[in-house]
Amino acid sequence: MIKRDECLKSLVTKIADDEVVVAAYTTAFELDAIRPSPFNFISSGAMGLTSSHALGFALAWPDRRIILLDGDGSLLMNLGSLVTNANAAPKNLIHFVFENGTYEANGGHPIPGQDSVNFAGMADSAGYNNCHEISDMAGFESSIGSILQEEGPTFVTIKCETGEEYPQDYRYMHSAKIREEFAEAVKDF
């Protein structure tokens, strides 16, 4: 199984400094520590809407790759977004789901179907162009370069567990400042 923060550390070396990365909850805190950037859009306070935010950005900026870092619990709150995203078919959207079988941000309660759900299968059935499931770091390292080059929408389930603990500054994540920094960073897109 992959440690999520180790996966993120590898992923951020393969994306451009000015690429928009949309992240949910615990992954957002890790992303902010690993890749502090005004191009990080932190989706917090509305569980399940990360995929909808990313779709909006992908449609608004079709010439820019949009990286979505979703959680399995978050995606369960808005499964309809799989069909919506696939129907809109943004070629620039790469949808990662970090699957750890829990609603991590809400105390680590197990998600329904944690031992049987197949998110990549759902995305495939919904109509995503490419669907992958990765469960070890060697598999991630060997495939991420080609995955990032695929014509989307692309969906990648990462079977993971938590790694290091990162600071969780909710005040900053919910601040006007972080939204203003993002708006300034993308104003010329």
Structural class: alpha/beta
What average pLDDT do the residues reach? 93
**Helix-strand sequence:** EHEHEHEHHEEEHEHEHH
State the helical fraction. Answer: 40-55%
Number of self-contained structural domains? 1
Total count of helical runs of at least 4 residues: 9
Strand content: 15-25%
Output the radius of gyration.
15 Å
CATH architecture: 3-Layer(aba) Sandwich
CATH topology descriptor:
Rossmann fold
CATH-defined superfamily: Thiamin diphosphate (ThDP)-binding fold, Pyr/PP domains
The top level CATH class name: Alpha Beta
Q: Segments where pLDDT lies below 50 for 5+ residues?
A: none
Task: Please give a structural write-up.
- By secondary structure, the protein is α/β, with parallel strands linked by helices.
- The chain has one domain (2-181): Thiamin diphosphate (ThDP)-binding fold, Pyr/PP domains (Rossmann fold).
- Helix content is 41%, strand content 22%.
- It has helices spanning 4-12, 25-34, 50-60, 72-76, 80-88, 119-126, 137-147, 170-173, 176-186; strands at residues 2-3, 20-24, 40-43, 66-71, 93-99, 102-103, 109-110, 130-134, 154-161.
- Strands 1, 2, 3, 4, 5, 8 and 9 form a 7-stranded parallel beta sheet that branches. Strands 6-7 form a two-stranded antiparallel sheet.
- It is globular and about 40 Å long.
- The N and C termini lie far apart (37 Å).
